[in-house]
Amino acid sequence: MTLLLRWGLALSGWSALAAVTLLPDADDLRVVVTTVFLLVCPGLAASRWARPGSARPTDRAAVLETGVLTVVLSLSLAVLVVEPMFLSDTFTVTRALLALAAATSVLALLPKSGGRRHRAPRAVPGADPPTAAADQPEPHTSE
Known about the structure:
By secondary structure, this protein is mainly α. The chain is built from 5 helices and no strands.
């Protein structure tokens, strides 16, 4: 995912929050922006962390799998945010969107886990490559 798309994903929650706070109730734009954000954006940001695969899947099955994972993660994150608010009698749409927008922004903007740390170490210039004898186990001698 390119940096521009990551920034767009990070700002999507804040645009949904702005739509909820600034547009009148039952406005078509408010409903569309909020629904798209709730169904796609938190899960897409979280799926960057859940899937170590390639950035652009080429197989149809991989695209479908990513789409399903995105929707499921979005709904799961929404439930994890909303349920404690319901149980503590502090739920409002604005608070829920604020929490989801913050979580989406953090997940979208932080570097992907498993970046450079998990790559094989580079060879040191000028160092001798390991010999084949070093890879062989030592012979067992019985005394």
